[in-house]
From TrEMBL:
One of its GO terms (cellular component) is plasma membrane. It catalyses: ATP + protein L-histidine = ADP + protein N-phospho-L-histidine. Its EC number is 2.7.13.3. One of its GO terms (molecular function) is phosphorelay sensor kinase activity. This is histidine kinase. Keywords: ATP-binding, Nucleotide-binding. Residues 1-101 form the Histidine kinase domain. Pfam families: HATPase_c (PF02518).
Length: 116
């Protein structure tokens, strides 16, 4: 998740919000990170997950490994990591992970501003 958040911060104009959400959908946890940056160049939505790939001019630092790592971790846990452009500008990255049996029956709640 840290890679997705850092990526969003890197490509979002200063002062622009980054939306982070999480929800249970069926037997999965879905986490989304949505930014208001330039978005993903058309046709590059899958390519950005390849190792050492940086698109869109890649003015920001980095080696092009962050998104490849995010996807590899999600897949290793039986999930997915995908990206798409937002209609209103920017991109949204969605990580879907299967919940374990004990997690699905949890009564845990998340409160805004809660700390652990």
């Amino acid at each position: 998740m840290l890679n997705l958040l850092e990526n969003a911060a890197k490509y979002t104009p200063p002062g622009s919000p980054i939306d982070v959400s999480a929800r249970v959908l069926g037997a999965n946890m879905v986490v989304e990170v949505a930014d208001r940056g330039e978005g993903i160049p058309a046709g590059q939505e899958e390519r950005i997950f390849d190792k050492f790939v940086r698109v869109g001019g890649a003015r920001q630092g980095g080696f092009g490994l962050g998104l490849a790592i995010c996807r590899a971790i999600a897949v290793a846990h039986g999930g997915t990591c995908v990206a798409q452009n937002r209609p209103q500008g920017g991109a949204v990255f969605r990580v879907t992970l299967p919940l374990g049996e004990d997690t699905r029956t949890s009564d845990a709640t998340v409160r805004q501003g809660a700390t652990t």
